[in-house]
Amino acid sequence: MPLVDYHEQFAAVYDALYAERDVLADTRYAAALLELDGHRKPDAHVLDFGCGSGSHVLALGRLGIAATGFDTSPAMIARAMAKPVPRPSADVRFVTGAFTDFCAALNGHCFDGAISLFQVFNCMDSPGEMLAHLRLIRDRLATGARFLIDLWNGAAVFTDDPRPDASSFRCPDDPSKEIVRITIPHLDRINQRCTLRYRILTLDGTRGREQDAFESVHQITFLTPVQYRHLFELAGLNIIDEFRRGHPGNPVTERDWYISYLLGGD
Ligand SMILES: C[S@@+](CC[C@H](N)C(=O)[O-])C[C@H]1O[C@@H](n2cnc3c(N)ncnc32)[C@H](O)[C@@H]1O
Predict the structure, then answer these.
(1) 233 Cβ contact partners less than 8 Å away, ≥ 6 residues apart
(2) Both 87 and 36 in a single domain?
(3) How far is the CA of 151 from the centre of ligand 1 (A)?
(4) For FRET with 261, which of 50, 130, 162, 240 sits at 20 to 30 Å CA-CA?
(5) Distances in Å between the alpha carbon of 73 and those of 18, 78, 142?
(6) What's the 206 CA to ligand 1 centre distance in angstroms?
(7) Probe ligand 1: pick from 48, 120, 219, max atoms within 8 Å of CB?
(8) Tell me: the pLDDT tens digits for 48-105?
(9) Is the alpha carbon torsion for 178, 179, 182, 183 positive or negative?
């Protein structure tokens, strides 16, 4: 029986699968878009919604920006909390559980910026669930605060179907190990859902012998730009920029699989 998404085994290999990302550079870019870079706002506190294994939260701390990482996966939060906090660092913390409880426990505290990187909202079951979370985040944004969100671009998914894939990664903790990820996608165009069935193998890199294998199934709900814009409007979030991920100011096309929005709450 395959396990569903961000469980312990998947959390254990997550950083290896995405090791090619330059997290510090991505965090600097996010901080600049939120207008929190260069100590423009020395006491700023950022929410990382769906922080995963915590890399961006720790990088924000390293840049002198306090951050709280929230994620529904206890396994991902455990990975985040096990990482050393760079010194010096602004205040960083991690929270898991129900997002409504998290928001209630804030006692009215608002964030000076929010990020949700790497398609967190697409893990949700429906547009209604996305809208409810957008509204909760909007209510916790301070006046003038910005929210950067990455999403799957449904227009590109319809143009360029997800294909089966096999990729290999070096294990950063142990370079003698190789991790192989086999992806079998299934696209449901009517319900705008894509099921990504991953089979993850850990191989002894020298002999190619299998040491471990497991499955993880990720359900992705994807919308088109028109549909995302409608959700943002319903949530009371205004669009400052809609762009190809990583390229502010560049309009998205049906060839761009990933889309980002820079949003404002007022
Ligand atoms: C692709 S990972 C992205 C993690 C991180 N933002 C990054 O850039 O590496 C998606 C994350 O979203 C989390 N997630 C999924 N649904 C969520 C929800 N409703 N609320 C908060 N986190 C959620 C998952 O547990 C997972 O850690």
Answers:
(1) none
(2) yes
(3) 12
(4) 162
(5) 18, 9, 26
(6) 33
(7) 120
(8) 999 999 999 999 999 999 999 999 999 999 999 999 999 999 999 999 999 999 999 9
(9) negative
Q: Residues with beta carbon inside 6 Å of ligand 1?
A: 6, 49-52, 56, 71-73, 76, 99, 117-120, 123-124
Are residues 181 and 163 part of one domain? yes
Q: How far is CA 35 from the centre of its chain?
A: 20
Q: Which are the contacts of 119, defined by CB distance < 8 A and separation ≥ 6?
A: 150, 151, 152, 220, 258
For residue range 206-264, list pLDDT tens digits in order: 766 778 899 999 999 999 999 999 999 999 999 999 999 999 999 999 999 999 999 99
Instruction: Please check whether residues 10 and 22 belong to one and the same domain.
Output: yes
**Residue 70 backbone phi and psi in degrees, to 5:** -115, 140
Task: Find the CATH number of the domain harbouring 216.
Answer: 2.20.25
User: Atom 9 of ligand 1 has which residue's CA nearest to it?
Assistant: 52
Mutate to test the pocket of ligand 1, among 10, 55, 72, 81 (most ligand atoms within 8 A of CB): 72
Q: pLDDT for 105-158, tens place per residue?
A: 999 999 999 999 999 999 999 999 999 999 999 999 999 999 999 999 999 999
Looking at the fold, whether 141 and 172 belong to one and the same domain comes out as no
Task: Determine the distance separating the centroid of ligand 1 and the alpha carbon of 190, expressed in angstroms.
Answer: 24
pTM over 0.90: yes
